Amino acid sequence: MCLRDYTINLVLRKRVVEETLQAFFHTILLHRTFPTLSFKDGAVSYTSYIGVEDVDCKNFDLTYVKVASEGLHERIAGHITIFSKTLRDESGNEPNKAAKGTIILAFVTNRKGSWVVGSEPAAWEKWIFNIEVNPSTSDDDYRSKIASQIKGEILYILDCINTSESFLPELGSSQSECDTVIDFSLPEVSPYRFNINYFLGPPQNKSLGVRRF
């Protein structure tokens, strides 16, 4: 399996970090989620369509589309909220102090393990977001400037997803065969399995693959 990773670097103000990451994560998951899957006679099919909804951002002028699944939203919202709060706390109230951190959305396959080591998730795609939180400065145009920047990054994400080099694991002919790559625990939707990790400090660009600086 070939790991593809994509890196986005952003300098943001405290108040926009959470909404920015929500827009990025939901855009990616919109293209990494199936409706309910059905298996019959050795074939897989969809039993419904994915519901979507528009989200209007409050801190900048941007509307993005997400999968209409509260369960899927909760899976990512908690991680993003904690990461964003940690960055805000790290920067504190000091006028010239910046905080840096990285949050990673990784799509994984649950490898079948042995009785010794158990199962082990292996990533096939990673989205790495290096965030620097800078102290707020007076700028009347910031709302429109950051919206333009985020729109550009979303277009970059869509380009990566739609490239011919993009890799998606093959689906099996039964639920048990798909269970290593698909999460069947959510009602109405079946996303590719993913996990979210984050840490504070400067970025650690050690992975091989597609990077953007």
TrEMBL record:
An example Gene Ontology CC term for this record: phagophore assembly site
Keywords: Autophagy
Family matches, as Pfam families: ATG101
Statement: the UniProt record of this protein carries the keyword Lyase: no
InterPro entries: ATG101
Gene Ontology molecular functions: protein kinase binding
Entry's Gene Ontology BP terms: autophagosome assembly
Family: Belongs to the ATG101 family.
Entry protein name: Autophagy-related protein 101
Organism field: Hymenolepis diminuta
Organism phylogeny: Eukaryota, Metazoa, Spiralia, Lophotrochozoa, Platyhelminthes
